[in-house]
Design a protein that fits this description.
With 497 residues, this protein is of the alpha/beta class. It contains 15 helices and 23 strands. It binds NADP nicotinamide-adenine-dinucleotide phosphate. This is aldehyde dehydrogenase (NAD(+)).
């Protein structure tokens, strides 16, 4: 089926507007079926050098194009993506495994980002402000950084790339993008769309290959002035320290240990819906996945029973089938990690209420599936309630009060997303103030970000930058302060006034 959607069996790098083949390659496996989808190039540092040289030249011209004209390309990108939404969604499900409804949502996020960032071409606002001296004008403007390096994960292969590359491009940068080796098709498709939309050659370059080869070469390249990375904390930490040595700007979006808080005054049916969608959507392989439910003890048993009843209805399988709600696990390393946490949870004394096993029989035999899993009676300090599992596993932590719920939510090293279900308006406002995460949802699950708001987390989730929203422009621009003195004489600030 993939070959009917994809006209090639092996992908090529996209460098300087040319499709460049690579000597070595690796099979990309559909996690739902175990079948090879396509071959992805395994490039090396030399290819990165070529891409950066070309990007550097292209960027000089691109930066001189007026921003509204740069934005025209993004509008065209958005329209082409819109036309191809169904084809892109199906390919996304084949390489990543997420169910088709979610794949469509992810592609839509990219389309929204294209139109939003295209609009920024006519804003890119700086400030004008009074100067302290007579006959003097002061303003601040955004300048492009130059060549930017983008490194993306497999779990959102197109949305995250658009959060990063669209603001970079509209701001006048050139991009070298290394997509995750697990999910290269969206990068190939997006590169083709950029080509068709008329982006000048060399402004967007895609280099496929392992993080340890291509990603590392980008991080260490003198002419890449900013690295925008989304992925695991281990990789992010190592990239940050290498960038620190070089005084290179780096934006990191990493893991989460997100919680849904359910208070005793919550609409429990709504809470159950929110938990199921956040915990088991994308098989829990989202940075914003709900992997803890902090529940008031008065409604704990009721919530458990409702969750168990609804979990029984979840259909697990190949996400191309519209009736499937939970897809596969991306790879064996992911599966092994999930299984290890089941044992950790049992060993810590949490009670396994549902799931906890790999599904490999009947319709699940060729793919890699894990049963949606519910632990209860977890305590806040258990490893299953502290560490990112990245699978369909959720742990209930009972609490006695609102204050304790906030404390448990904040008592992890991550700070990406949190949610509270309550009908008390005072608690709503206290929660949005006190929850120490970059994203807070009220009466909704932990997922569902909109592209015009900043996306990212506090504490161990990030390093203070944000993807998407107008804030993403801060990663890809430098602020420049400009003073124009029209007095005809030398005026000295702080001295002559
Ligand atoms: P990962 O293993 O860190 O990989 C992310 C990207 O980094 C991949 O492209 C990978 O290349 C590359 N990479 C690996 N080692 C590298 C190195 N030494 N130098 C440079 N690049 C390197 O993460 P993942 O497993 O793909 O993604 C899952 C993680 O991402 C989870 O922790 C999740 O929470 C997090 N995430 C965070 C957000 C957010 O916005 N906060 C969003 C989505 C996901 P390969 O192709 O070789 O793997």
């Amino acid at each position: 089926m993939t070959q009917t959607l994809l006209e090639v069996k092996k992908l090529s790098n996209f460098i300087g507007g040319e499709w460049v083949e690579s000597d070595s390659s690796k099979a990309v496996i559909n996690p739902a079926t175990g079948e090879t989808v396509v071959e992805v190039p395994l490039s090396n540092a030399k290819t990165v050098d070529q891409a950066v040289d070309i990007a550097k030249k292209a960027q000089k011209e691109w930066a001189l194009e007026p921003a509204p004209m740069r934005a025209e390309v993004l509008y065209r990108v958005g329209y082409i993506m819109k036309e191809r939404k169904e084809r892109l969604s199906q390919l996304l499900t084949m390489e990543n495994g997420k169910v088709i409804e979610e794949a469509r949502g992810e592609v839509q996020e990219g389309i929204d980002m294209a139109f939003y960032m295209a609009g920024e071409g006519r804003r890119l606002f700086g400030n004008t402000t009074p100067a302290e001296l007579k006959d003097k004008f002061a303003m601040s403007v955004r300048s492009p950084v130059g060549v930017v390096g983008i490194i993306t994960p497999w779990n959102f292969p197109i949305a995250i790339a658009t959060w990063k590359s669209f603001p970079a491009i509209v701001a006048g940068n050139a991009v070298v993008w290394k997509p995750a080796t697990e999910t290269p098709i969206m990068a190939y498709e997006l590169a083709k769309i950029f080509e068709e939309a008329g982006l000048p050659k060399g402004v967007m370059n895609v280099v496929f290959g392992a993080g340890s080869a291509v990603g590392d070469a980008m991080v260490n390249h003198d002419d890449i002035r900013v690295i925008s990375f989304t992925g695991s904390n281990d990789t992010g930490r190592s990239i940050a320290s290498k960038c620190g040595e070089q005084l290179k700007k780096v934006s990191l979006e990493m893991g989460g240990k997100n919680a849904v808080i359910v208070m005793e005054d919550a609409d429990l049916n709504l809470a159950v819906e929110g938990i199921l969608w956040s915990a088991f959507g994308t098989s829990g392989q989202r940075c914003t996945a709900c992997s803890r439910v902090i529940v008031h003890e008065d409604v704990k048993e009721d919530l458990e029973n409702r969750l168990l009843a609804e979990m029984k209805k979840l259909t697990i399988g190949n996400g191309l089938d519209e009736s499937i709600k939970v897809g596969p696990i991306i790879n064996q390393a992911g599966m092994d990690k999930i299984k290890s946490y089941i044992e950790i949870g049992k060993g810590e004394g949490a009670k396994l209420l549902a799931g906890g096993y790999e599904m490999n029989e009947g319709p699940h035999k060729n793919g890699r599936y894990f049963a949606p899993t519910l632990f209860t009676d977890a305590t806040a300090d258990m490893r299953i309630a502290q560490e990112e599992i990245f699978g369909p596993v959720v742990s209930l932590v009972p609490v006695k009060s609102f204050e304790e719920a906030i404390e448990v939510n904040n008592g992890v090293t991550y700070g990406l997303s949190s949610s509270i279900f309550t009908s008390d308006v005072n608690r709503v406002f206290k929660a949005q103030r006190d929850l120490d995460t970059g994203i807070v949802y009220v009466n909704a699950g932990t997922t569902g970000a909109e592209i015009h708001l900043p996306f990212g987390g506090t504490k161990g989730t990030g390093n203070g930058h944000r993807d998407s929203g107008v804030q993403a422009l801060d990663v890809f621009t430098e602020w420049k302060a400009v003073y124009v003195d029209f007095s005809g004489k030398l005026q000295r600030a702080q001295i002559d006034n």
